[in-house]
Design a protein that fits this description.
Length: 315
């Protein structure tokens, strides 16, 4: 495993992506503050390009490639936001994107990735099929594989969201992010501990997909086995690089119930009038479930994205 990004890499990533990525707004809600008895500041990555924070990391990875490597294009396997993010970033740089997608991926996601001009190869919906198909594509095209989270430049790119949040709103006592593969959380932890060393970084994870929680407690990587949660963006197991950073820089990881995820998601839709996906609701769910003590604390929350099938709403 090669070396890990540090804050300077996030600073450089921010310089690289600011021409292409949105500086997303930070919103507050008086009514949600009343419910939780505290001040919450939401960094709205649901307003990022492709509707998720993933564009930051993909954009940094694509624009960090040398001219020689860029000519061969980029490749990944993904059924979700990373696929669309990588496809758009590659289109902006004028290079090819080769995306391996399970044939069972939602039609809306297939259309989004195709719409950004990516070359899609469909495979069976198993991790083994995804990895073997990607290996074949990389061998044929000699494209650079860009992993969705276990990648140096991707982690550095994801850390720019917390950097912007802290620069805009200054002091925080706690910053909370959801955790799946750990790209957003590891980047958030690097930025936060550099800019606000006293600020606690806490991750929230669905109880039905709690590999990060268990890995953090055990001090070693424990892969996810058959995870089940409505927060489909958080089904992946932690990456090695991500776990190394999280072990060192994250203060705690808590788990939340499916009921509270749905309640938090509905609360944000109703009170803030913005669309978020279930994964984004997990940090607020942790507060509603009293898993994190936020009394008299200034709290930042990263809303990771807003991509979901409106035909399958949980309310």
């Amino acid at each position: 495993m090669s070396f890990l990004p540090v804050y300077n890499d996030i600073y450089t990533a921010h310089q690289t992506i600011q021409k292409y990525a949105h500086r997303t707004p930070v919103l507050t809600s008086t009514s949600i503050n009343k419910i939780v008895g505290n001040s919450l500041f939401f960094k709205c990555e649901n307003f990022q390009k492709v509707g998720a924070f993933k564009f930051r990391g993909a954009c940094n990875a694509v624009f960090s490639l040398s001219e020689e490597d860029a000519k061969k294009g980029v490749a990944t396997h993904s059924s979700g936001n990373h696929a669309a993010a990588l496809a758009l970033a590659a289109k902006m740089r004028g290079i090819a994107a080769h995306i391996v997608m399970p044939r069972t991926s939602p039609e809306i996601k297939k259309k989004a990735v195709a719409g950004y001009g990516a070359h899609i190869t469909f495979c069976e919906p198993t991790l083994e099929a995804r990895e073997s198909t990607l290996a074949k594509v990389v061998e044929e095209t000699r494209a650079t594989e860009i992993h969705p989270y276990n990648n140096f430049h991707v982690i550095a790119g994801q850390g720019t969201a917390a950097k912007e949040l802290i620069e805009g709103k200054r002091k925080f006592d706690i910053i909370i992010a959801p955790v799946g593969g750990g790209g957003l959380l590891s980047g958030t932890a690097i930025s936060t501990k550099k800019l606000l060393p006293e600020c606690k970084v806490i991750a929230a994870e669905p109880a039905g997909a709690d590999d990060a929680f268990r890995s953090f407690r055990a001090g070693k990587l424990i892969p996810s086995v058959n995870p089940k949660t409505i927060a489909d963006g958080l089904l992946t197991s932690l990456g090695e690089r991500n776990f190394a950073i999280i072990s060192e820089k994250v203060d705690d990881i808590v788990t939340v119930s499916e009921e509270k995820i749905v309640e938090a998601m509905r609360l944000i839709w109703e009170r803030m009038k913005i669309i978020i996906e279930p994964s984004s609701a997990v940090p607020l769910a942790a507060i509603l479930e009293n898993k994190i003590n936020v009394q008299n604390k200034k709290v930042g929350i990263i809303l990771s994205g807003g991509n979901l099938d409106l035909g399958k709403l949980p309310f």
